[in-house]
Amino acid sequence: MYMKTSKERANVVCEVKGMVKEQKMHAGAGFLNTLKASTPLRPFLFALSTRKPRTRKGKTNPFPTIFSLPNELIAEVLARVAAISVSDLFNVVLSCKVFHRIAGDDYILRHVSLEKFPVIPWGSTEQAFFLDKCKRSGHPEALYREGVIGYFSFGKVEEGLNCLNNAAKAGHLGASYVLGVILLCVEETEEEGRQLFNHVKAERGIRESRKKLKDIVSVTWRKMVLKPKSNSCPMQEQHRRRGGWPDDSDDEVDCEACGCHLEIIFVCSLLRGIITY
Asked: Which pTM does this prediction carry?
């Protein structure tokens, strides 16, 4: 059709634009109706779909971890693990650099269980190195072993006595027992040795102390032996309840002098190989 005037052409253009606009509106309404009819997204899927990408720099962890604890508290946890099993401590140390760094603290080394470590680590430089670290940290059991071996096997009197003394101060009853017996054999230190013996007896540690000393003596050589003194108690025969060597009882005799003398005889005989209690 031919348009004679510009006004007629403008009217036709307006009509076409209106028709296009109306068609778009109908199409949008249909799309919205489709969205309303569809199944809504689940909450967690909606969260995933609307989550913004997180950069490494702004990454945060709302949940606390063990690394957020103070080093002192982590050291306490590792010390308790070490006191139960040294194997578990080694596994923990290998799992993390932080644990490996903290595990070298002297506080943790002083609590390591040496139950599965041999008295003398023959042919194992790793065990020898670790035991030396424990000794330098002030580990009571490591000092006790070093003191007994140093004094009786190598004749290092001063060094052995220092190790036994430090272990006894740390509360090791076996060290107090051995040190007490050594001091009881010397006139000038007899009273101090008697006090140590009474302390071990009061803690009911005589039986365990004998066993620990026997375990070390049975696998080592002896260079130093003790010379027992005579029993000065005038009623030693009456005070001694039975003959023979002390048994497993922590309260063998009531008399202090007779009790100290019996322990001296026991240790001296053990060192000479006369008894293998």
From this structure: 0.71
